[in-house]
User: Fold this.
Amino acid sequence: MDRVVLVTGGNRGIGLAIAQAFVAEGDRVAITARSGELPAELAGSDVLVLKADVTDTASINAAFDRIEAELGPVEIVVANAGITRDGLVMRMSDDDVDAVIDTNLVGALRVARRASKGLLKLRRGRIIFVSSVVGLLGSAGQANYAASKAGLVGLARSLARELGSRGITSNVVAPGFVDTDMTAALAEDRRAEIVRAVPLARYASPAEVAATVVFLASDAAAYITGAVIPVDGGLGMGH
Assistant:
């Protein structure tokens, strides 16, 4: 389709699957990664890899400047970069709180803020935030993470109202438990416990989350904005 797409945190897990899906669509794709290295899964593609940090405004601005110079105006932005620092709230340090909120929520705002300048000029575009079922359900031991992911809903809906008249949509994808390196590291009994809680009785694949993101970026989703789309096997239904 030859659109310019930016995926933050596109070097592994869900972000990598999203990048691969847009490459398959024929789009011009850029990803950010703190390492600045192209993942082996994208070897041979024309994906532009940018060493950037969503907690640093100057870094994000520089990344957009380079994308615009080398690929053209960014039309689709997927704010996916995120971290976890789990622990009980009574023992959670200020650094654990600040790092997670600054990366997952404020980082997404920084990306959307810079992206909006180009999208307003184009009078079209898509902003898609990757949240989590945890942001809707809550999770013991993840107060910082859940708060950051819940905040993306308010951010997306505010942008939907602010930018909608210019043909720009803003939506949230809320994955449940996805089969990634992070979940693979869980103990077997914990993995089994999670599966028992999911009505579809399995983990999602990263490609299933990516397919939802690609749909929200498509013409078929042009009248969807301010929405939260769960990809969680039914785990969070009703929220």
